[in-house]
Amino acid sequence: MHQENMSANFNNLTRNDVKRRRHLGEHLTSEGIFIQYILPEIIAYRDEYLWADLFCGEGSLILPILGTIPERERESFFRNHIFMCDIQEEMVKRAVKRAVSYGIPEELACERIRINDSLRHFPAELTSVRTKVYHVTNPPYLYLGYIRKNSELSHYSDLFQGTGNGLQDLYQIAMSNDVRNDIRRMVYLVPTNFLFGKSVSERIRSYVLGNYSIEQATIIERKVFANTGTNILILFLRKAETPVEKIEFRALKISEKSRVGRYILRKEYRFSAGDAFDRYVEKNRQRNSPEVYFYLTRNEIVSNPGPNPVRIIDSKSYNSEGYSLFHLSVSKKMYERLKENPLFVRTLDTGTSRGRAGLYEIEKVFGADGIMVEGSTYRTNPIHIFFNNISSRPLALKIMNEFNRRLEELREETDSEFMTTYKYSTSSYTRKYLGLNQVKSLMKTIDIGGL
Ligand SMILES: C[S@@+](CC[C@H](N)C(=O)[O-])C[C@H]1O[C@@H](n2cnc3c(N)ncnc32)[C@H](O)[C@@H]1O
Asked: Which of 65, 74, 281, 367 is least buried, going by the fewest C-beta atoms within 10 A?
């Protein structure tokens, strides 16, 4: 209900609001997330730490702690144990108002909740007590690729130079500031790519996890924020005594059904939680494996006319009846090429158990011989796959079965974690995306001679 209200409000926002939100990475956490997943884990240390949020928004990740303190003790607790800031005056005002609603005098609230650009300035209030700070935060998310494409965001560029060199997102700048400032304990709400990503997060992961252990994590595979589909991770981090080589932890995964996953992250794999796929490929690599390439272009079909009838669908012309089917005539060479390459890749789970990502027969699914594409390609459309070193339909079908069997085995073993979660999923289960490079890699584990 809360989320529906937020979405309705969102529809009324002006374009400038939307832009401001995006540019400041503003996605506010609901108090419910804090109460359910964070508060129970920190309540035992409540009186030992200074609770800070340097990107506090309305204060949902800190202020509800006050609800656990008897009213007459709140003012003194607030004075000694809470500090928050945000770059937006409006957010600071809202957080102050919220503190006041817990009985904190406004003047005191304004002292301990203030405007600050925390990506650039570590607040002086924390420097002398830094080892006693517990930073609970959901920092702004903004990907460097997006920043670079937007001239209005050029003021962020310098953050990614010097100590920020190689980092890829504003949330990573926030994390690296904490490491540099020797913050000992923190809870970070960050995109799941922090644990599972490759080039987008390898550097920050090595920097943070080389020095901190993960006490526990919650991975939320459903929509948390009203205005973005980014899946998030609640990460409890603790500074380690010595450099970290290996981290073992349990994570609660919340999607259509909740479950607990066990993770082992290793320094040699840059602490990636999604490295099982790469390790599998490395371990099972074969010399004589299928070499594949993707896409049948319209141009290829048109420039190979001849007397042989084929049925081709256009992957971009989809309507309620399905894909448009074209009856065309092609050369003998093209005809044979299509017959010998009867498969397509479904990169995205459709949302039912029969439509999982994998290889399928074009004939069986679409009643066609080929899938053509013109112009820009879409990674989630069905994609015709061709073999470079195989020209036998029966062998292609065997490869399909072997490929799908391996893929399903890996998905079972890793809870599909090597695949990307599809953001805009509305189906009742989490839809996963299989990249074309992953298709190529998994093919390398199939021994053609053994089929
Ligand atoms: C993802 S929101 C999270 C807010 C809050 N922690 C929560 O979870 O509801 C990020 C917040 O960081 C603030 N912010 C963005 N850039 C900032 C900066 N350089 N310094 C301080 N706050 C910043 C935004 O105004 C926004 O309120």
From this structure: 367
